[in-house]
Design goal:
The complex is a heterodimer of chains A (386) and B (152). Chain A has 386 residues and is of the alpha+beta class. Helix content of chain A is 55%, strand content 8%. The two termini of chain A are 29 Å apart. Classes of the chains: A alpha+beta (386), B alpha+beta (152).
Chain lengths: 386, 152
């Protein structure tokens, strides 16, 4: 099988979104030119996709830096003000939850937007957030869930033991309809060893006067690219802005070798490789050419290619075939258990039971037969969305 | 108004603020009220943030603005009272060990080369953040942007 699946094979970014990203991230005439072209192409007051809308606060900061005097600046400034206010409100509300967990002896780490905003963007309005993602150590996840339940934070579906073993996060809601995501693994199917490294390398961060931890720049970049290189109903283009902000930061250094090693270890080389290549070709980030060469030479396994194809596919338009879904699950299971020398068949069966929402072994067998039959007839099979 | 020698302090962490292109936006996270200040008001806020004592605020304003009408003292006092009533700033003693007076506050305040005419400071207030956050910042706002709504 061909070893070079190019980033151009996915349509995660439209040409219009790319112009907007350039207006937000580049400097000088390149940024201004992109902004003008984008305005010519898009009637953004008429229709704007959610992914592009989330970039507008960053557009405001970049255009303001360039001294742009445009009739749209008033509205953009308003969008920035709103993002700033929403983020500040979220920080304030979620700091209480973080403090509550810490008071009970549970370590916390702020993932995604909160850490990116506070540490890397160094701007509380440029990177809008819908909610806050809090990571707790895997060993304390059950305790954290129990405590949060007592405090009125509940998950929509009841959590089972298998959710903790094979899942990575849960969305919690309180009676005021506030939401936040509790993670016990940094990302889907992350193995225990990486979780340890993730915590060991963490950096301090302060959210609304409450001390917590944030992923270090290398882990953050890994997280951003792996999360970003996946199809999402809301175009996930802001990963590009997050990644460029991280890479171009004067205050932090990326350990490129570690980044590549992580990708290899977790069978995520193709996602990293495609993500970095896309950034390199379009946004001139300060990625050493030796790194691009190393990632270009990364070998990609068959399962990884299948998983990559599944992740970037527009799931609104097409469902995954059962074979793809099975390979994807196998790839994730392999990642989760990458430290085990012998393939744990019993655990794999339990993971399938969890993925297929089977009540017991018989139910799993029944669903397995259906899956095999569907596979034979190549009918789409709906896997449990986690 | 605070007594001479006392200092005003921004009521952090429950009050957060940011200067966006000359406009200072302030959020009282306890009440959910949002405020916007510009010009003289934003300058006063800046002096408070830098740690200027309360009795130095008026001289600083007089240094930075032309005050031909002699109404600046009342206007500044009124504004400071508003800030306190809204819980945005609190009065503290100079000797407070929690918030010692910054020794270099004067160095951090720049004096305008060209004085502009003093206009009474205004505190623009928008209530209920939950409602404000539901406003569509593209279609429901005027040309100055969120949170100023279009006239109905």
């Amino acid at each position: 099988m061909n070893n070079t699946i190019s980033y151009v094979t996915f349509d995660l970014v439209t040409p219009q979104q790319e112009l907007l990203l350039k207006a937000a991230l580049l400097s000088g005439e390149e940024a201004l030119d992109a902004w003008r072209k984008w305005q010519d192409k898009i009637d953004w007051e008429e229709h704007l996709d959610q992914g592009s809308f989330r970039l507008l606060p960053l557009i405001y900061t970049n255009l303001h830096k360039h001294g742009v005097d445009d009739p749209a600046m008033g509205m953009l400034k308003g969008i920035y003000r709103k993002a700033w206010s929403k983020n500040q409100t979220l920080f304030h509300e979620m700091a209480k939850v973080v403090e509550y967990l810490q008071y009970a002896g549970i370590k916390t780490m702020l993932l995604k937007g909160a850490s990116l905003s506070l540490l890397y963007y160094k701007n509380n309005g440029a990177r809008p957030m819908a909610d806050i993602d809090v990571l707790v150590p895997f060993k304390q996840a059950r305790q954290a869930c129990e405590l949060l339940q007592k405090a009125g934070w509940t998950s929509i579906l009841p959590l089972s033991e298998l959710d903790f073993i094979f899942g990575h996060a849960v969305q919690l809601k309180n009676s005021l309809d506030k939401e936040f995501d509790l993670h016990w693994r940094p990302f889907n199917s992350c193995c225990d060893e990486y979780e340890k490294d993730f915590w060991n390398g963490a950096m301090p961060v302060k959210m609304a006067n409450v001390n917590s931890l944030a992923p270090n720049p290398t882990n953050m970049l890994f997280h951003v690219i792996i999360h970003g290189m996946a199809w999402n109903p809301v175009p996930s283009i802001r990963w590009i802005a997050d990644a460029i902000t991280l890479i171009n930061s004067d205050d932090f250094t990326i350990d490129w070798q570690q980044l590549i090693n992580m990708a290899k270890k977790h069978y995520l080389s193709l996602r990293l490789k495609s993500g970095l290549q896309y950034l390199y070709d379009n946004f001139h980030p300060s990625i050493p050419s030796s790194v691009m060469k190393s990632t270009g030479n990364l070998s990609i396994s068959y399962l990884e290619k299948i998983e990559y194809g599944f992740m970037i596919r527009n799931r609104d338009k097409e469902s995954a075939g059962p074979y793809t879904a099975f390979c994807c699950h196998l790839c994730r299971f392999r990642r989760l258990n990458s430290e085990q020398v012998i393939f744990p068949i019993g655990k794999f069966a339990r993971s399938l039971q969890w993925r297929m929402n089977a009540r017991n072994g018989y139910d799993l067998l029944h669903k397995g037969f259906r899956l095999s039959a569907n596979m034979f007839f190549s009918r789409p099979f709906q896997v449990r969305h986690r | 108004m605070t007594e001479n020698g006392n200092r005003l302090k921004i009521n952090e962490p429950n009050v957060v603020h940011e200067n966006i292109d000359g406009e200072t936006v302030i959020l009282n996270l306890d009440s959910g009220n949002y405020y916007s200040i510009v010009d003289v008001a934003a300058d006063i806020w800046n002096y408070i943030e830098k740690g200027a004592p309360a009795n130095e605020l008026l001289p600083l304003i007089r240094k930075n603005y032309e005050c031909p009408h002699g109404d600046e003292e009342n206007a500044v006092n009124l504004f400071l009272n508003q800030l306190q009533q809204e819980g945005l700033v609190i009065a503290i003693d100079d000797k407070s060990t929690d918030s010692p007076l910054p020794q270099n506050w004067k160095d951090q305040i720049t004096v305008n080369g060209n004085k502009t005419v003093f206009n009474a400071p205004v505190l623009n207030k928008y209530t209920d953040m939950q409602d404000l956050l539901l406003l569509d910042p593209i279609h429901e706002v005027d040309a100055t942007g969120w949170p100023s709504t279009k006239p109905s």
